[in-house]
Amino acid sequence: MVYITSWDEFVERSVQLFRADPNSTRYAMKYRHSEGKLVLKVTDNIQCLKFKTDQTQDAKKMEKLNNIFFTLMARGPDADISEVTGKEQMETQATKRGRGRKQ
């Protein structure tokens, strides 16, 4: 069980672990409201990677990691994850118009 302190290293090693053995790799998260801590865990039953944080800004990072894993699971382990970024999604949401009154 390895706690990784760097977020970028955790994401990189997690993706490598998934691509090495996609059938047995699991991703879990645990949030303890009383302590305000979030623990993310990626394991393939041989190697276990963990990231622990108590920062609220890391919730967006966790959302990005979820999107990366969803992409890898849906499109396969060889999928290009460079297109999975929060910036592109936020730009498309900003350009959408609501169904409100026309001006």
From TrEMBL:
Sequence ranges assigned to domain SRP9 in this UniProt record: 5-66
Subcellular location: Cytoplasm
Region named Disordered: 81-103
Listed InterPro entries: Signal_recog_particle_SRP9/14, SRP9, SRP9-like, SRP9_dom
Keywords: Cytoplasm, Ribonucleoprotein, RNA-binding, Signal recognition particle
Any Gene Ontology CC annotation: signal recognition particle, endoplasmic reticulum targeting
GO terms of biological process kind: negative regulation of translational elongation; SRP-dependent cotranslational protein targeting to membrane
Pfam families: SRP9-21 (PF05486)
Molecular-function GO term, any one: 7S RNA binding
PANTHER family assigned to the protein according to its UniProt record, in alphabetical order: SIGNAL RECOGNITION PARTICLE 9 KDA PROTEIN
Functional summary from the UniProt entry: Component of the signal recognition particle (SRP) complex, a ribonucleoprotein complex that mediates the cotranslational targeting of secretory and membrane proteins to the endoplasmic reticulum (ER). SRP9 together with SRP14 and the Alu portion of the SRP RNA, constitutes the elongation arrest domain of SRP. The complex of SRP9 and SRP14 is required for SRP RNA binding.
Family membership noted in the UniProt record: Belongs to the SRP9 family.
Listed name of the protein: Signal recognition particle 9 kDa protein
